Amino acid sequence: MKKAFNIFSMAVCLFASSVFFSACNKDEMPQSPINVLSSSTFFSVEGGEKEIVLAEKVDKVYAEDAWLIVENQGTKVLLKASLNPNSTSRSTLLVLKNNNGATQRISVTQEGIYYGLPQDQTILTNDKALSKEMRVGSNVPMTYTSEQNWIKVSYDNGVLRAEVAENTTGHARVGWITAKVDANKLTNVTGENNLQNVKTDSLRVVQASIDNFVGEYTQYATTLDETQNLVPLESVVKIEKVNDTKAKFIVDNKYTWEIDFENGVGFNFTNGKIVQTKKDKNGKPIYTMSVIVADDYRNGHNTAINGTKDQLYLHVNDKGELEFKVCPFLFVFIFLHGVLNGKKSLKKRLFLSLFNASFLCAVKRGTILLFFF
User: Is the pLDDT of residue 136 over 80?
Assistant: First the structure.
């Protein structure tokens, strides 16, 4: 009887084990894998069509990002992408699924766009004719042009050539060379080429010689009166040529500031220049020198006198006019009278003018207009 009981117990155990293992095998049944026969998953910047070939069709296919368009065609998955307008590459995951739970993820990448004009090749020159070549690169078809008829542009095998005609207008002039993606030569498989997100690049061309700016101007500024209030100040300014790289900036026929000129750029005013020399009643020399001061008039804020190497820039703007370029905070531009004695000490005597502006424009033989902020 005991032996029979043992046999019965063993049978029960074997039956229970059989049921247990049967259940486990049913839950952990190997999924049928998604077999990819071939795949092409890298897009050039222009986009196009690629395909994934499968051994068997899948039930569901989608991309995790909208820029990749997916079509499930049974044993073939068609991928479409348009132009990538970003300078960086972009990637997404293609997800393939079957109803039995099998999943396959495939990475798809598209390169970013690169193009443009070399900004270190900006053309800043005098009024003479000029020819210049520069290397340019891109991974999309480009068109290089200029809207100014005095600038001719041609392109061949990675080299851009600019022909600038002689400037005989008597005035400075500014033009642009532009680089645009050629939409007619792009691959456009999705009905969108994303060109609205691609910026046009440009390169500045300036023809300006010192002779373009010789003349008389009216300068409008502000100064401090005896009660320390800002009042309007109008002065006559003359620009006289010394040579091709130097000029005199003369204010009210009293003060002469020697300034430097750079072709295609404009004038540079160096701080700490002596602008007038005369003698007092004792025959001692009296010097007037330029000093640039920064002050925003806040309580407790000290006036800062800039170093003698600091500069003001009277440069050519995009309209071909002169424009003072100063810091966005308050800049004070003054002349100081001083007596230079044997100890070389400088004493304040007089404020001539005070500028409170972000920039200042000048029109040849017209006005120098000050804009306040």
Answer: yes
Residue 372 is given by DSSP the state -
Residue that is written with structure tokens 């005597």 in the block? 349
Please report, rounded to a whole number, the percentage of residues in the chain having pLDDT higher than 70: 71
Residue carrying structure tokens 């009042």: 231
Burial class (CB in 10 A: 0-12, 13-18, 19+), 120: exposed
Residue type, 256: T
DSSP designation for 16: H
* Residue 153, token pair as written in the block: 């542009």
**Cβ-contact 361, 346 below 8 angstroms:** no
3-state DSSP assignment of residue 11: helix
- Residue 175 token pair: 């033009």
DSSP code of residue 195: G
Measured CA to CA, the distance from residue 232 to residue 243 in angstroms comes to: 33
- Around 330, how many Cα atoms within 13 Å sit in the side-chain half-sphere? 16
Half-sphere exposure of 115 (CA within 13 A, CB side): 24
343: number of Cβ within 10 Å: 5
* Cβ pair 267, 322 in contact under 8 A: yes
SS3 assignment, position 7: helix
- Identity of the amino acid at 125: T
Rounded to whole angstroms, how far apart are CA atoms 182 and 188? 12
Distance CA 51, CA 249 (A): 70
Q: State the DSSP string of 117-175.
A: --GGG-EEE-SS-EEEEEE---SS-EEEE-SSTTEEEEEETTEEEEEE----SSS-EEE
Q: What are phi and psi of 98, to 5 degrees?
A: -115, 160
Q: Where are the beta strands (DSSP E) in 23-64?
A: 36-39, 42-43, 48-54, 60-63
Query: Which of 217, 205, 216 has the alpha carbon at shortest distance from 316?
Result: 205
Q: Is the pLDDT of residue 154 over 70?
A: yes
Please state the separation of Cα 2 from the chain's center in Å. Answer: 95
How many C-alpha atoms does 166 have within 13 Å on its Cβ side?
2
Token output for 276 = 């007038």
Q: What are 313's two structure tokens? A: 């820039």
- Indicate the DSSP class of residue 75: S
- DSSP 8-state secondary structure symbol assigned to residue 199: P
Which pair of tokens denotes residue 299? 């309580």
pTM: 0.72
**Residue pointed to by tokens 């920039």:** 359
